[in-house]
User: Which sequence fits this backbone?
C-alpha cells in the first residue's frame, strides 16, 4: 500500500503510477487522507484520481475530495468542483460512513432529488412535473364532472368550466403559495369524480410543497454535509 497520509506537498502534486495494486484487497492500495498540495494533481486526470479515491482507498475520507474540489474551484471549474463533491457523498453512502438507516435514506433521497444539494434544479424539475400532472388531472377529470362553475345568484345552475379555467385550477392545486384566483369561478364538485379530484389535489399540493422546500434547502446549502 502506498501511504501518503498527512503528506504536505509544497507545490504541485505529480502522481502517475505505472502500477498500483494489492494482492488481497483492491481497496487497500492507497492512503491519502490529509494529503495536501497546490493546484490540481498532475500526471493523472481528475476522473482517474476520483476513481482511486473511491476504489483504491481502504476507508471513506472527506478531505481528499474536498482538496480536489477546492483546487477545481480555485481554477474556476465550478461545475467540476460540484461533481467532485457529489462523488464524495456517493462514496460516503456506498461505504456506509453515515450512521443510521434514516441518515442513509435521507442522503439517498437528497441525492436523487437535489444532487446532494449541489444540483437544486432537480427539485424544480419535480415541481414542474407536479404542475403538469395537476393540469392533466384537472383538464381530464374536470371535463367529466369533476369541476363546475361556482353557483352565484345570477347563475344558480352549475355550468361546465372552460379549458383555461380547468388548467387554472390545476395550477392552483400544484403551486405552493401562488393562486390564480380561478377557484372563485370554477371549483371541484360533490360528485365522485369531483371528490377524487379533491383527494388528488391534496396529494399534489403536498408534493409541490415538498419539492419547493427541497429546492430552498438545496439552494441555501442546508442539506450539504461532509
Assistant:
Amino acid at each position: 500500500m502506498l501511504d501518503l497520509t498527512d503528506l504536505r506537498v509544497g507545490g504541485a502534486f505529480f502522481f502517475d503510477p505505472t502500477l498500483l495494486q494489492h494482492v488481497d484487497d483492491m481497496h487497500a492500495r492507497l492512503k491519502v487522507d490529509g494529503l495536501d498540495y497546490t493546484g490540481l494533481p498532475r500526471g493523472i486526470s481528475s476522473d482517474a484520481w476520483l476513481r482511486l479515491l473511491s476504489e483504491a482507498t481502504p476507508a471513506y475520507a472527506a478531505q481528499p475530495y474536498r482538496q480536489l474540489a477546492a483546487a477545481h474551484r480555485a481554477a474556476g471549474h465550478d461545475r467540476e468542483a460540484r461533481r467532485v463533491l457529489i462523488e464524495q457523498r456517493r462514496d460516503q453512502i456506498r461505504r456506509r460512513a453515515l450512521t443510521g438507516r434514516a441518515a442513509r435514506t435521507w442522503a439517498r433521497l437528497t441525492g436523487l432529488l437535489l444532487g446532494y444539494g449541489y444540483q437544486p434544479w432537480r427539485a424544480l424539475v419535480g415541481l414542474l412535473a407536479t404542475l403538469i400532472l395537476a393540469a392533466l388531472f384537472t383538464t381530464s377529470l374536470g371535463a367529466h364532472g369533476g369541476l363546475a362553475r361556482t353557483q352565484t345568484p345570477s347563475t344558480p345552475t352549475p355550468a361546465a368550466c372552460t379549458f383555461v379555467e380547468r388548467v387554472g385550477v390545476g395550477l392552483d392545486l400544484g403551486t405552493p403559495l401562488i393562486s390564480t384566483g380561478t377557484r372563485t369561478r370554477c371549483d371541484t364538485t360533490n360528485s365522485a369524480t369531483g371528490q377524487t379530484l379533491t383527494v388528488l389535489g391534496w396529494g399534489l399540493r403536498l408534493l409541490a410543497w415538498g419539492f419547493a422546500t427541497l429546492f430552498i434547502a438545496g439552494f441555501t446549502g442546508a442539506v450539504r454535509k461532509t
User: Anything to note?
Assistant: The mean pLDDT is 87. The CA atoms of residues 154 and 185 lie 13 Å apart. The radius of gyration is 26 Å.
